[in-house]
Amino acid sequence: MKVLIINGPNLNLLGKREPEIYGSETFEDYFKQLQSNYPSVDLHYFQSNIEGELISKIQEVGFSFDAIILNAAAYTHTSIGIGDAVKAISTPVIEVHISNTFSRESFRHQSYISPNAKGVIIGFGMKSYELALQSVL
Questions:
Q1: 37 has binding-site annotation
Q2: Is 50 flagged in the annotation as binding?
Q3: Is 104 part of any known ligand binding site?
Q4: Between vectors from CA 132 to CA 131 and to CA 133, what angle results, nearest 5°?
């Protein structure tokens, strides 16, 4: 099974950025642990702060991978383009968020991805990614 985790803007700062919300672990360290825990999964990772790069990556793997786990971060609430990319592909997408977006600012309550995602996992910290992975296994 081939699964791609895609992280959007500012998630490259995990471990440094607002540890009270996002924790103190880097995503790279977490990803290595996830790969170790699921050796039978061909697990890939991509991060970009650029909206168009995220859309291009979704389109690139959206017909050949078994699943995409997508944390579009702030683009979740602003990018019709990312929402359209998710709608256009055949690979199922699981939307994830580290924090509980509904306990934060009201603009974070809207997602352009959710209507076309297979499912949404919100608020379980980094564990959100593993829950998403388990859902596609």
A1: no
A2: no
A3: no
A4: 90
Per residue in 82-123, pLDDT (tens digit) is 999 999 999 999 999 998 776 576 766 689 999 999 999 998
Q: How far apart are CA 135 and CA 53, in angstroms?
A: 26
Nearest to 113 by CA among 69, 67, 80: 80
Domain of 81 in residue numbering reads as 2-136
Supply the residues annotated as catalytic. Answer: 22, 97
| Rounded CA separation 21/68 (Å) | 24
| 3-state SS track over 20-84 | HHHCCCCHHHHHHHHHHHCCCCEEEEEECCCHHHHHHHHHHHCCCCCEEEEECHHHHHCCHHHHH
**How many domains is the chain built from?**
1
Q: Any idea what the CATH number is for the domain that residue 21 is in?
A: 3.40.50.9100
Q: Record the pTM.
A: 0.93
Q: 15-64, pLDDT tens digit by residue?
A: 887 777 777 889 999 999 999 999 999 999 999 999 999 999 999 999 99
